[in-house]
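Query form — protein 3-hydroxyisobutyryl-CoA hydrolase

QUESTION: What is the three-dimensional structure of this chain?
INPUT:
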Amino acid sequence: MNQPVLFEERPTENGMRIGVATLNAPQTLNGLSLDMARMLDERLMAWAADPRVAIVVLQGAGDKAFCAGGDLHGLYRSMREAPAGKPWANRYAREFFEVEYRLDYRIHTYPKPVLCWGNGFVMGGGIGLMMGASHRVVSETVRLAMPEISIGLFPDVGGSWLLNRMPGNTGVFLALTGAQLNASDAFFTGLADFHVRQADWPRLLAQLETLPWAGSAGTIGGDDAPAFAPRSMNDGLLRQALLALEPAEGLAPGPLKQHSFQINNLCSGTDLEEIYENIAALADNDDPWLSKAARTMLAGSPGTARLAFTLLLRMRQRSLEDVFRAEYVAALQAAAHGDFAEGIRALLIDKDRRPRWNPATIEAADKQWVLKFFEEPWPEDQPHPLADLGAA
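ANSWER: The structure tokens for 3-hydroxyisobutyryl-CoA hydrolase are given below.
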């Protein structure tokens, strides 16, 4: 049986090492399972403590995806087996979301440069892995999205933090529609930092092995230099290598940027019903990207729309740690009360693509209905499972 994550340490010319982690489940578009998240987290901790490792590279096996999401089949089984309406009774969901969110947070706060290769599909859980990396690189084939509206969850893995930091009201639009972004719009939304052609990726990896990385085995500064050079030196080396492979021709504006003025107007304010109606009116738009976005929203879970929108409002000024803690509660509640199981059933299990959402309308998924998704489900005397995020 193949290992779901492959790890290697590539030696460099000056004695340092490059830690490379490859998600190795191309048959599921490198969907992130609990075992994969555990393995990644453990190895990232080890590499962070290893003075010989200068940088870390995250990539996906195959050419189709870096990571197209999380382990929906495993979560579906856990929701079918757990007692209905009891979020804390679903042990698998409790562990999956805690391990996944801790891994994502670790990448956000990692003490060394992390290069993430965004090639092909990067969706849901893949966004969670990528968005915290210090050097986020996309190819011409990248397609990014947070499509949870179609499965009855919500844009988690820190999505409530990320979407709030996108230009204007574009984050609201993406949360409600799950619209896909190309490489150009990845830069527009702040999801990408560098552009490298898919064909140049092996060349980049080879070049990284030749650079004079700083660290305990490094040679920068001569024999009298301190054992550890500032991280900024390695950040700079990595940046220079990436810029050297940046295509000379620029990227044409993507559809999100092209329509950003209209989207900002449609998604302004705090009245979800009005915003929902504004987007719905695009269903017959002549532009296929706008039309598809609106139709996806209309076919998606009204409960997801309400929950995602409420999280964006509540988390607007909150820290990344607080966002992960709020999303953890909401994810457990969604696994017990929401449309999550039904969305997976319709998309991946029975594949009839005819989900029976409950509530069935945005009006029924009102401000009172959504409050249960913010109720902590564990015993009163127990701390939040993610209470220690951000602790010194």
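ADDITIONAL NOTE: The chain has 16 helices and nine strands.
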